[in-house]
Amino acid sequence: MSELVIDENTRIQILDSIELLARARKHQYAAFIRSERALCVWADDVDMIVAAAETLEESLVHFVWRGEAENAKHNQDLLLDVEKRKGSPPQWDGVREPEKPELVGPTISALEDITLAYHNETGDEDPSVHRMKDYWRERPVMLIAPLSDALSLILVMTLIGLGLRTLVKEYALDGKTTRFSLIIFTPPLFCIASYACMCVIGSIFQILGPIRQVTQKSRYFSGIAPKRTMGDLPHVTVQLPVYKESLEEVIMPTIESLKKAITTYERQGGSVGVLVCDDGLQLLSQAEADRRRRFYFNNSIAFVARPGHGVDGFVRKGRFKKAGNMNFAAALSLRVEEIMDDIRPVNSVDHPWNDIDENKIYEHALEMALAEKEGKAWAEGNIRFGEIILIIDSDTRVPEDCFADAVTEMKESPEVAIIQHMSGVMQVANHFFENGVAHFTRGIQHAISYCCASGEVAPFVGHNAFLRWSALQECMSTDPDDGVSKIWSEDHVSEDFQIAVTLQMRGYTVRWATYSGGEFEEGVSLTCDDELNRWQKYAFGCSELLFHPIRHWLYKGPITPLFKQFVWSNIAVHSKFTICGYIFSYYAIACAWFLSVANYFIAGFDRKFYVDLPSWEVNLVCIILFVGLCNVAFIVLRYRLKIPDCSKLAFDQIKWVPFFSIFFTGMSMPMSAALFSHLVGYNMTWSTTIKTVEKSNFFLQLPIIWRRFWPQLVFFAACAAMMIITSSSLMPSGFRVHNIEVYVPMGILTASHLLYPFALNPWFLSFSARTLFLMSTYIAEPYAS
């Protein structure tokens, strides 16, 4: 298939006859028909056709008036500028390459051969070595994060050392050795304090440290987009796992956003396929399932659907089904590839192989693969994976021009397996809770960007990320339970962390990219209940990564093999410390309520223990650090980075302090419930994330709040009553608790747990305000008359 290159963002396919439109790239929305001598333009919406045609006409007029010589030079610069970009050719593994457009002029590989011959003749340095030196000079390993982590480690060790020094001094005074039993708490104290120390040093670096790295490129970070490689662009597959989300309100807007990006990439010379891993299709009613399938067919979307759990003996393994959903689609795709390799004939001169033949054997291979599943699997469309995969969520918006930058960066950096893009926030409800979580999400994204730019290993969060298909296939392992080779771990809640560790152990790199400007947008939790579920899942996943359930400790040991692999892997040591600090931050939040209650009884009723249990000092440090220093550091960092509207963002940073004080303090008990559930082997379950706005009212929310939060409401209501009683004359004078060092930490914790389900519930507060308005109107009505 040939095409006309108008500019770097516009290529129009050329077909010999109008019958070939059936095989055209649909998302280019235009094609020249040679036999008709006409440009055919189409669109999904009739109202858009005229505007699309006018845009193409304007581009063509500019192309014609630019002249043949100028166009030839322009295309030469676009396609053959190898010397300037000095990019090594990628070694692609994976599926067969899609059909490539015919371009006039020498190919990139031919030009590189000429360049190599020139250097060999002139005796200059080997061009591959020269390119590698330039690459590492362009993407150095930043040492700011290692320095920050080293100082954090020194700080936490200093604090532990000061505590041990206190024990030794007290022993020298009274000679009692029993206090040395507190040394057994040194390892957990080290783990819990490490995150706080990282925050202290990190905040100082944000205020006083270098910031230029945020606008540069480094090994784990891309602050600016790569210079695009125009020419033969690889096929990209967009993988979209869905469940029972609303087709109209959730899935359709995501597909519409994708179609704009696909059109851009196809007009740049690439091709994109969309594969929906629909885990809810076989669970829906027949009418709803047919609507989904019709929508997929009308938009040239492939899908794979597996049966429900327990249907005809089928087992949906894993606590969360996303990993199993994607594994099922990948296994079916690879099986189709195997069948195609078996039945594809050897290409001969007399019978050249073409796309029509390839499509025929694909359809036959898909039918055979589905027959092997005995009707359990549903699939339609092209379910084969391209060289690059973009994983998104069902409620995602993608930039209109994102594919070309990603494939260029993958081509320039063959060691990169994942490019994780910084995400913006897509809001649908716009109430105060969603606004607060959106503010927090944006802040977290900027904080990760700063850390990765400084030299931290980039995280993989499971969506809005480009992945190398060949690298994922290298990570396949056989599940001992069913003997099936799988990419994603179905035994872990945090399958994203598991695949990232596995890839890095195999020598690949995960990279964080910010050049999309946050145009990758994701939805956030719409209720405090949903957000609490999310944090409990994270806590459960962290416990799952670290520890076996207690019942397995006798014959497996407490530490999981995955964490052992992580500790002994070739991942940078400073990044291991950072990741461990992040994991243990969940334990720090979880133990807050238990330690505060214990401190209230121990230090409140016997002050001599207060020396060894300085809860007030810890509470004061947490307030100064997380409420004060961290917020100030982030405000200063935004100002230093010249982010627009710094004053408004600074006000927002301060405005949301009470919100997040209640939020993080009030989730201590639910967080500990998630950690404890994993350790004791309790089957803790969570409802699916709400993607659409479901308005509620006061009377509907009360029973929901009680069903979900009754344990903490009852417990902390009892704690509030206990605090009132123990500080009043009802208690004997020797058992009254008046010291502020004990009372304030317990009071803050109790108030936050009681307020969490009410103060952070947007519908509960909204209805309360409306009720007050109606009551005031009712009271004022007699006076008005």
From TrEMBL:
This is Uncharacterized protein. Residues 388-598 form the Glycosyltransferase 2-like domain. The chain crosses the membrane at residues 141-162, 182-209, 584-603, 618-637, 657-676, 709-730, 742-765. The keyword Membrane applies. Residues 3-74 form the DUF7928 domain. It comes from the Eukaryota. InterPro entries: DUF7928, Glyco_trans_2-like, Nucleotide-diphossugar_trans. It comes from Cryptococcus amylolentus CBS 6273. Keywords: Membrane, Transmembrane, Transmembrane helix.
